[in-house]
Every structure is written in C-alpha cells, then in structure tokens.
Amino acid sequence: MVETHPSPSSRPSPAAPGKFLTFVVAGEEYGIEILRVHEIIGILPITRIPRMPRALRGVVNLRGKVIPIVDLRAALGLSPERSSDSHNAIETCIVVVQVRGSQVGALVDAVSEVVSIAADQIDPAPPFADSSNTPCLTGIARAGDRVRLLLDIEEAIPRDVMGEIENAAVA
Amino acid sequence: MKRPASAEVAELASSCRPDDHEALVHLLDAVAALSADASLPPPIRALYSGAHAHLDAFAVSGDPKSLDAARAVIVAAARRADLRQALRAEPSAAPDRPASAQPSATSDAPHLPRLVPETCDPVLVTEFISESRELLQGAESALLILEGDPDDVEAVNTVFRAFHTIKGTSTYLGVELVASFAHNAESLLVRMRDRSIRCVGGYAGLALQASDVLTDLLRRVQREMEGAAPLPLPDLAPLEARLTKPEQFGISEEERRAAWRTQADHDREMAGQRRGTANLETSVRVRTERLDRLIETVGELVIAQSVLAQDNALAHTIDPDLARKLAHASKILRELQSLSMSMRMVPLRGTFHKLKRMARDVAHRTGKLVTFDCIGDETEVDKTLVDLIGDPLMHMLRNAIDHGVETPPERQTAGKAEAGHVTVRACQAGGNVVVELTDDGRGLNRARILRKGEQLGLVPAGKQLTDAEVYALIFAPGFSTAEQVTDLSGRGVGLDVVKQSIDALRGSIDVTSTPGQGSTFTIRVPLTLAITDGLLTRVAQERYVIPTAQILFSLRPTRAALSTVLGSGELLLLKDEALPIIRLGRLFGVEGARQAPDEAILVVVTDGTTRAALMVDDVLGQQQFVAKSLGRGLPPAHGVSGGAILGDGRVGLIFDVHSVLAALRADARADRAVA
Questions:
Q1: I need a surface site. Which of A113, A114, A151, B494 has the fewest CB within 10 A?
Q2: Collapsing DSSP states into helix, strand and coil, what is residue B381?
Q3: How large is the average pLDDT for residues B111-139?
Q4: pLDDT at site B567
C-alpha cells in the first residue's frame, strides 16, 4: 500500500465508511453514498434541450415528473463516448440522485452493486497534477484488486449545469 | 413609558374637527415643536414642516383639503418615527447602520412581555389567528357597507359578533392584550347593536380604526408564534379611551361627506355574505400540501391513462368491449380531473374586499368622491393566482382614482357627476379570467404619452402609431406622465411592474381610453397555471408544443407569399403586413429539418405586441398539457419555457413565445440603432 501524504490544499473531507452504490463510467468504477441515491432506472427516451452545457443531455419523464439528465462522462471531463461503445448501450442506466435540493438523473454506463466499504479500505484522494476534476473525488476504495473512485456527487455535477434552487415563482 | 410626541400629535390630528379652533391651535404648536425637535432626523422634521404649512393654509383658507393633507403627512411622520424606534429595538437591525447617538423618547425594551402565554397549545393559537382574520375581514366589509347604509342591521351584527367572538376566544387562550382591546372595542359596538348610536361619521371611523388595530395585534401574535423578535407595542390607551367614551373627545355621528357610496354593491354584498356564512359552516379545512399532492397525483393518473390509451398494442387489437371499458374509465378520470382542479379555485371576493378598502382610503386621501362597484366577486380563480393578481389590481385602482378620476370641482366644470365611477368587473371567458377596471375620469392623454415615449426613445422617429400602440407605451419602465409625484403613485415604476406581474402569470393587459371620458384596463389571465392548450408540432425528430393562446393561425405558404430581405431575414407576406419567419430548426439547432418554407408549415404567433411566423415541419395535433418546469436549478433555456408530458410518455418542449419575440424586438432595435 502506497503511503500518500495529502497536501494541505482545499479538498473535501475524506469519504466516510458506509454503503456505496458502485457504477462504471468510461471503463472506471466509481462509488457514491447510497443515501444520496433516490432510485435507479433503465434508460428512457431523453428530450434534448437546445443550447445547454454539453453535460446536460436533456430531460426525461419519470412518472409524470420532468427531471434533467446529466452525462457523467462529460461532467467528470472523461473521454466522450465512442460509437464503438454502443454494444454496451443496453446496460446504460440512470441513477437518480438528490443534488442541491433537486432530483437529477446521472447517466452511467452500467451499475455494479451496493457495497459496504470500511474505513481501513479507504485511502485519501491523491493530489493529481491536473486537479480540475478532483474536487469531487473524496477517496479511493480498495478491496482486493478492485479500485473504486469515491465521488461526492454534489461536486461531480457542475454548478453551471445544475445550480442552487432559489424560490422560483411559477414554472 | 412616555409616549412619543409624534404618536400623540397624530392622534390629535386624526380626531380633531375642522371647527375646533382650540384643538387646531394646539396642533399647530405641537407640529411646530416637532419640526424643530433635534432628536428627530431631518426627513421626519421636514415632514412636520410640511404639515405646518398645510395647517397654515387651512387656517387662512378654510379649505378642508389642506387639513386632510396635513393629517396625512402627520400620520405618515408618526408611522416613520414608530418604525425607526422599532428598527432600533430589534436585535437584527441592519449592521451597517451607524450607531445612533440620538436619545430615543422611549426606552428600548429588549424583553417585551409575551402576547401569548407559554402554556398555550400552538395549534389552537394558529387556528385562532386564521379564524379571527376571517372574522375581521367580514367585519371590515360590513363596516364599509354601513358607511353607505348605516341602518343595515345585519351588518352591525356581523361587526359586533366578530369582536365578541375574538374577545371570547382570546380570553380563553389567555392572550390578554387582544382580549382587553376587543373588550373595549365591544363597548362601542354594543351601542351600535342596541341602536343607541348609528355607525356613521366619527363612530364609523373609530370602528374601522379598532378593526385595523385588532388586525395588527393578530399579526403581532403570529409573529410571536413564528419566533420573530417582538416589536414594541403601540400605546392603545388613547384609542381605547375613545372607544369607551367617544363623546368626551368630540366624536359623534357627524358626517364628513362620505366619499364612499354604493348601493347596488351593497345589495350584492349582502346576498354574497349570507351565502358566504352558509359556506363556512359546511366546509372543511384541508392542509394545502395535501391538496397539492392530491392534484399532482390526479395529474399523473391522467398522463398514465393517456399513455395507456395511446399504446400501440391497444390501438391495433381493439376489442369493442375493451374500447368501451377504456372510454368509460377515461370519462370518469376527466371528471375527477376537473373536480380536483376546482378544489384549488377560490372566489375573487377576498381580493375585491381589499380593493374596496383601498378605494375608500385613496379617495379620502386624494379628496375625490368615488363610487366603486365590484361585479363578479364570485368568479373563481386558482388559489395561487388570487394572491398574485391582487397587487397589480390594487395598483391600477390606485392609479385610476389618483390620476384618472378628477377632483369634484373639475368634474363639475366638465359637466360630469361630482362622484367618479370606478368599476371592477370579473368573469371567466374562454379558459381565462378576465378582469376589467373602468373609470369615467379624464382618460389617457395621447399626446403627452406619445411625447414621453419619444423622450424615452421608445418610439422610432417618424413612425405612425395607432391609438392602441400609444396607450401600450404606459407599461414601459420609467414611464410616468404625472406632473407631480404624489405620495401614492406617479413615480413611474408602477405600470411596468404591473405588466411584468401579469406576464409572469402568462396573461395579458390591454388599455382603451377616450379623452375626457375615462379609461378601461383589461387583464386576461389563464384560468389555471397548470393545464394549457397547445399545438403539438414536429421539427425533424424533435417535438415542440406551442401554447394555443398565442397562436393566431397556421398555414402552408405559397412561394408568392415568401420574401427574403437582405439583412432582415425571411418574411411571410400577408395582405396587410409582413411577418418575420423564425425557423425552429435553426433556433434549436435541429438537424434534418425541412428547408423550404413552402413545404413546411408556418404557425403565426403573437405575444400581444409583435407577431412572427414559426416554421415547423409538421403539425401533429392539438392537446391539453400540464406545463412542468424543466428543473429549477437549470440554466435558463433559450426559447423554451418548460416541458410537457406528451401522449407517448416522452417530454415535449414548450415553446416560449414571449422570450423569443422579445429577443426579436431587441435585435430589431439594435439594428435600427446601428443603421
């Protein structure tokens, strides 16, 4: 196990142990606190909204409620989907999470499982040279030879895609 | 605790009679003293100087308007002084306010006694507050009727019962202050109920004051329940003294000319009130969240059912028996839906009540005589709408009386009746609520409005405007042709705010006017904000809903009707105008949209000011839809005002006519500016 010395830069507090939902995006496995997850649904037809940030794919109808869908690949700054990935399309699903007071659907390539991760399995997130995306990384979980990147989903979804809710008037 | 001089003087000013010379001299001295009082800030001192000038004028001319003006200013000054003290006593006063070095006339009491005993059940108190509010509303209505018809027995009883009930409940709950004040007010009202005095003149004014104070006390109780810091209480002793022994203060039935007269209204009111009290007894209180949840769920059921009905499998293998069962279910569901929507509907009566009170106050303050009629108070609108439509209406009413209606001498010179006639009429028409405000005053001054419009740069040079276009200018920001900014209106921030409020409700406002004869403002607002009619259109694979209310017509243009103008885009040529064509495919970046306008459909839309033709591939039909927000935290979507669940379960985007046409206008103005 490599000992890492976190530099005193501004980083979110390291992930607390507990239950996590793990999923795959662009070949990497991630985990988010299960308490943030509202539900998991299969892919639905997404209605595109014109001239929105690339990470915002559009909206779907979830039992009569309209919720926005965020493409986690784009939100995390990962490589865009190549058409050769389409054979995985069946597994693509939407993880509905609660972010800054609203429900948002995060588009992921596949959902793995719900796991309990203990404190001694979590290493603090190492400082990367390009730290533009690490604010949302709260730790690295190791179990056997599986590595899962733990995310703070509130930070992972950029504010210019989904901001704070003010007391909006009539829709 | 010594009473602030400002409050005492205000008291004296309100109650002194025009022929009571001694009181007037006393008032003059007091006001002069206050205008020189170094412990008051300059703005308040200036107010008292102004009041002094008015009083002087009254002393010289005997013109009651001067006395009224003085009174208004003195009361305003007292209120401001009160507010200052309240702000300084509150622990959460603005932090950047410099520490006041002026000694206050009253001691800042950080620990004011509680209004409601600690042992009280908060649920009971909350119910007490809302029930008492309703009772006081009814009492206020009745008092206004009594001013016009003092012999109305039913109205007197209504007022008395209100105070009596509030006294009883507050005694039971231990809210001492409210109980004792209600008790004192009751001593005046019981005399009215026993017919030893009539509710007119000074007595009527006193009763209204009592009602106002009690409403204020209830507000304070509510504040306390919500945990807000208590404000120092006004001194109720003088008012209570007048309530119990009015004659000692010279208050009597003597009438000031009642600026308030309405008989037809009274008849309607009484009928309505009897109906109203009956309704109270057979109704149930339901928490709003539960009601909203119920309506939301019914909405989801409607959508789910329509998805079911449009399911391909069902459509193709349609067994007649099955079809009948489905139709039956649909029918019941439609009824359920309209029932659930109607549960949120509330009559405009409450709003009209506030308007009547305001009309009376404004008429008094501006020295005008006004007959105010409200027609259609049983018209129902969605609960959320009622609150939002009240403010624009009140502002327009204030305008109508302050600026529209002339003073009695002016009206006489013009050969009109001394009292101006203002009417508010409400009804439901074609899925909208229509509210009309008419006055028979001086009407709008077209020339002055046009001039002001040119000054503000709103009128392109040399362009001929129709009357409607000229009058529509008054809704522009910063517009006011009032020569004098009065305390009430004329600051030029009113009507544009009104228009914005109406726009936010997806409504429209029009004005017509005849110089010298009056004006009519018409507000149209969709009945419910939730369900709207729309035209479903297709551009390539995307679908957009255009609200029917903004569609004028649609057509497939011939080549001859199309024209391109270099630098100004594409135009649709109609017989008397040329409309810009907006390609939705280009606006929304949709690939695969039809390119030739004569092979597409043009939907002509309007937002009340501008017209344009939207180009789509196909029109798929008309449907009712529930407008849903796309996600409140999302950045604003250009050209899209929300989402609608379509029959196949997918989300269709609702086209935002207002913002797209506004952007068009802004571009056009920018072009003109450059040219």
A1: A113
A2: strand
A3: 82
A4: 66
Burial of B95 (0-12, 13-18, 19+ CB in 10 A): exposed
Other CB atoms closer than 10 Å to residue B635's CB: what's the count? 16
Diameter of chain B measured on Cα atoms: 95
Calculate the CA B304 to chain-centre distance: 37
Q: Tokens representing B151? A: 């012999």
B645 CB within 8 Å of a chain A CB:
yes
- Give the residue from chain B lying closest to A63, CA to CA: B300
In terms of Cα–Cα distance, which of B624, B603, B655 is closest to B533? Answer: B624
Residue (of A22, A28, A136, A147) closest to A79 by Cα position: A28
Range with the poorest average pLDDT among A79-83, A89-93, B327-331 = A79-83
Kindly give the interhelix angle for B5-15 and B237-244, rounded to the nearest 10 degrees: 30
Segment 487-506 of chain B within 8 Å of chain A by CB: 504-506
pLDDT, position B424: 94
Query: CA-CA distances (angstroms) from residue B659 to B500, B576, B609?
Result: 13, 25, 12
Q: Are B552 and B606 in contact (CB under 8 A)?
A: yes
Please report residues of B whose CB lies closer than 8 A to that of A45: 649-650
The whole-angstrom separation of Cα B527 and Cα B427 is 11
Interface A–B counts its CB contacts (< 8 A) at 94
pLDDT, averaged across chain B? 78
- Give the three-class secondary structure for A79: coil
B441-448 average pLDDT score: 86
CA distance B644 to chain A (A): 8
The rounded distance, in Å, linking the Cα atoms of B218 and B238 is: 19
A53 to chain B: closest CA residue: B635
Q: Tell me: the pLDDT tens digits for B559-603?
A: 888 888 876 688 888 888 888 999 999 888 888 888 888 889 999
Are residues A52 and B304, on separate chains, in Cβ contact within 8 Å?
A: no
What letter represents residue A100's amino acid? Answer: R
Beta strands in B67-165 (DSSP E): none
- CA-CA-CA-CA torsion sign (B473, B475, B479, B485): positive
Burial of B657 (0-12, 13-18, 19+ CB in 10 A): buried
pLDDT over 80 at A79, yes or no: no
Find which of B630, B645, B658 to mutate to test the A interface (most A CBs within 10 Å of its CB). Answer: B630
In this model, does residue A150 exceed pLDDT 80? Answer: yes
Interface predicted TM-score of the whole assembly (ipTM), two decimals = 0.74
Is the pLDDT confidence value at B538 over 90? Answer: yes
| Nearest by CB: B630 against A59, A64, A163 | A59
Question: For position A37, what pLDDT does the model report?
Answer: 93
Planar angle of CA B15, B19, B21, nearest 5 degrees:
90
**Which residues on chain B are in Cβ contact (under 8 Å) with A99?**
633
B258/chain A closest Cα distance in angstroms = 41
Could B303 and A60 be called an inter-chain contact, meaning their C-beta atoms sit closer than 8 Å? Answer: no
* A56 to chain B: closest CA residue: B634
